[in-house]
Amino acid sequence: MGTTGDPRGAPHGAPPPLAGLSVLVSLLTAVPLRGGTTVVLPTPAFHAWGYLNLTLVALLGSTAVLPHRFDPADTLRQVEEHRASGLVVVPAMLHRLLKVPAGRHDTSSLGIVVVSGAAFPVELALRAERRFGPVLYDLYGSTEAGYVSVASPADRRAAPGTVGRPLPGVQLRLLDADGREVPRGQPGRVFVRGALTFAGYQDGGDAQQVDGLVATGDAGRLDADGRLFVEGRTDEMVVTGGENVFPAVVEAALAEHPAVAEVAVAGVPDETYGARLVAYVAVVVNLTVTRPTSPGFLTVYPGGQPLPATSNLNFVAGETRANRVIVPVGTDGTVAIYNRSGSSHVIVDVNGWYTAGGAVAGGSEFAGLTPFRFEDTRRSVLGPMVNETRTYQVAGSAGIPAAGTADAPTAVVLNVTAIHAATTTGGYFTIYPADVATRPTVSDVNFTGNQTVPNLVVVKLAPDGAFSLAAATPDAAHAVIDVLGYYTRA
Q1: Bridge partners of 279?
Q2: Hey, where are the domains in the chain?
Q3: CATH (residue range 378-487)
Q4: pLDDT grade, residue 424 (50/70/90)?
Q5: How would DSSP label each residue in 5-69?
Q6: Which residues have a Cβ under 8 Å from the Cβ of 225 and sit 6 or more positions away?
Q7: Got the DSSP string for 216-234?
Q8: CB 107 within 8 A of CB 133
């Protein structure tokens, strides 16, 4: 399927034997697939990307694992089962693989993950490298042009977002609208020529060519070291206020925000600028209900939209429960949360930006507190503690506004982990404002003998910005506290 939407055949003439060999050698030089290994290939062989890698694996005498269909968890299971050293995917597959909880399958055997077939966002690459290590190789090309360049892990470390340098034997030029070559660092239309450049469409049409180089349909730029950056499709370019803007560049910038799960940018008409960009965003929302007094459910949905009938998080009385959802942002730029319960404590965390619903019944609430992004996690290890109480000062500590100032915290989000140091008995921790004279009878973290238990706790601070942690333990136990963020309004 071409960019016009019409199906078109794009035949490639057979390259001369030596040229075909040179293509194979250049690919294997840039992408370290090796013989005698095992490669999992969930990419379909009817697609050029899947077919190429199946051919390479066969030529190398390696073992190809071909799933009947793509399933993220099953793909990782096959990597573990076969101790595969290679995995071939497209970006959408990689995105779904990362949704499988880390640690469920052993993927330490992977030495190479090859990605191609679509744009590879920087944010996705970073998340994949955190999961699998520096093993990602991004191959850029097109049906018409063949394979153009490969970005290695070293390329992405040096120049995030690059698709690498042209492969040996590939000639690449960036041209302006008049067919003139643009300077380094300036965007231009990508034209290439190589051993796998196509011979024209089957219906007799052809892609635009200049001096024997074929247009890929992409816009890109070269950095000072000759690395190529693809900035979007030339047919997606938006002219706004006389400036040429590619939506893919804006999408990549927005995708770097930790709260953004999915984003698409498009051009729309504008009376002043001729056209403007609109971003359609879905954000990550972490919901936690802390010990509600009655059962109920939460529904998170785009702001300004009708309330859906389905719920995102169901809970029962007296239970602390968390859930992570992805929800589109409404046309008014907001996300709404509907709490149907008699009373509950609702925490909404958009990847570090916090707000609270408090005891909201039958209403919609999202921005109850001024958000504050806590850049540096501050950790305190309190212990061993045996039937004692300690005070933890938040306001006025490193980087946090002092009590009495406009941005002083009034409540704090804690990740409390109880590490029991004895072997037989258990205990509990209670966390409360430091100015409370009598310790509450409700515990926040309970644990049994020789057990490590984490829990998310929200505690209101005393006027001086401190909270207390009391241990009811017959013998020693530690509490590890991570301050995740804080509220600046009661």
Answers
A1: 265
A2: 17-236, 282-364, 378-487
A3: 2.60.120
A4: low
A5: S-------PPPPHHHHHHHHHHHHHHS---TT-EEE--S-TTSHHHHHHHHHHHHTT-EEE--SS
A6: 158, 159, 165
A7: EEEEEEE-TTS-EEEEEEG
A8: no
3-class secondary-structure state, position 344: coil
d(CA 84, CA 113): 10
Amino acid found at 340: R
**111 touches 132 (CB < 8 A):** no
* 456, 407 Cβ separation under 8 angstroms: no
Other Cβ atoms less than 10 A from the Cβ of 460: the count is 16
Type of residue numbered 44: P
Of the candidate ranges 291-300, 308-317, 407-416, 420-429, the one whose mean pLDDT is the lowest: 420-429
What lies within 8 Å, CB to CB, of 144 at 6+ separation is 10, 197, 198, 207, 214, 215, 216, 217
**Across residues 111-134, what is the average pLDDT?**
90
Neighbouring-strand partners of residue 276: 268
**Contact present, 190 and 172 (Cβ < 8 Å):** yes
CATH 3.40.1190.20 fits 17-236, yes or no: no
Which structure tokens are listed for 218?
A: 């992409």
